[in-house]
């Protein structure tokens, strides 16, 4: 698993947590998904919708553990941190977490992008995101797709969907592969690997919990510059800059 991550920029585990632990997380997840009052200011629709639609198509809630502390005490957070340290070093710590849900029958893709496009430039580029499936995930409801990263991959030029929607870029993705998972399985990817997911055309939610880890001193650098992954989004390599 580690060799694949270091070589291609992504990898996966069939089971990070048990199904019982998935059920516990789902309960908290569903409460936050329905609670627009507690999640105000942390919540957006990555589809780029105007926010007045009856259904959010791709709901993103940043830093859910900041309003529901029990999350950070869960087995998922503990195991993901151990894997982050195994993959990239003992100085890895949790930078931020987020929930991303694709609502039923919304058929809205998350376009190809690199996570590093969302982040400030930092001298230490090490970072890993653990994407935990809380449902069966497959191509028709929006499992993750990855395109292997090259040895000198930088941050490509990105554009943004309107109204705080997702970033996206144009890139060759002919080597992309999908990673279906059972509930409790997870993927790991670095900040430079291109990834994407199709829209959800099924009658069920596609719930994912994502934890991002990076060196502790880089987190301190971010915070010093006012970056806490809760506020209004800025990004680098924006088209036209």
TrEMBL record:
Cross-referenced Pfam families: PhyH
Protein name stated in the entry: Phytanoyl-CoA dioxygenase family protein
Q: Which Gene3D superfamilies match?
A: q2cbj1_9rhob like domain
Superkingdom classification of source:
Bacteria
Supply the alphabetized keyword list: Dioxygenase, Oxidoreductase
Give GO MF terms, alphabetically: dioxygenase activity
């Amino acid at each position: 698993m580690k060799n694949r991550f270091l070589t291609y920029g992504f990898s996966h585990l069939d089971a990070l947590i048990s199904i019982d632990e998935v059920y516990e997380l789902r309960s908290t997840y569903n409460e936050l998904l329905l609670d627009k009052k507690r999640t105000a200011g942390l919540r957006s629709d990555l589809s780029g919708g105007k926010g007045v639609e009856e259904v959010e198509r791709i709901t993103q809630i940043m830093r859910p553990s900041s309003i529901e502390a029990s999350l950070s005490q869960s087995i998922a957070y503990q195991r993901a941190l151990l894997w982050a340290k195994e993959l990239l070093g003992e100085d890895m710590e949790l930078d931020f977490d987020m929930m991303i849900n694709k609502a039923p029958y919304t058929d809205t893709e998350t376009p190809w992008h690199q996570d590093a496009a969302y982040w400030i430039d930092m001298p230490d580029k090490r970072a890993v995101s653990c994407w935990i499936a809380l449902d069966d995930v497959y191509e028709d409801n929006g499992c993750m797709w990855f395109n292997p990263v090259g040895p000198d991959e930088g941050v490509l030029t990105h554009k943004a969907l309107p109204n705080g929607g997702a970033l996206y870029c144009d890139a060759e993705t002919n080597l992309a592969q999908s990673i279906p998972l059972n509930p409790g399985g997870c993927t790991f990817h670095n900040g430079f690997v291109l990834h994407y997911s199709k829209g959800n055309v099924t009658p069920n939610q596609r719930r994912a919990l994502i934890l991002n880890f990076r060196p502790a001193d880089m987190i301190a650098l971010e915070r010093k510059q006012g970056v806490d992954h809760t506020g209004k989004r800025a990004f680098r390599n924006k088209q036209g800059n």
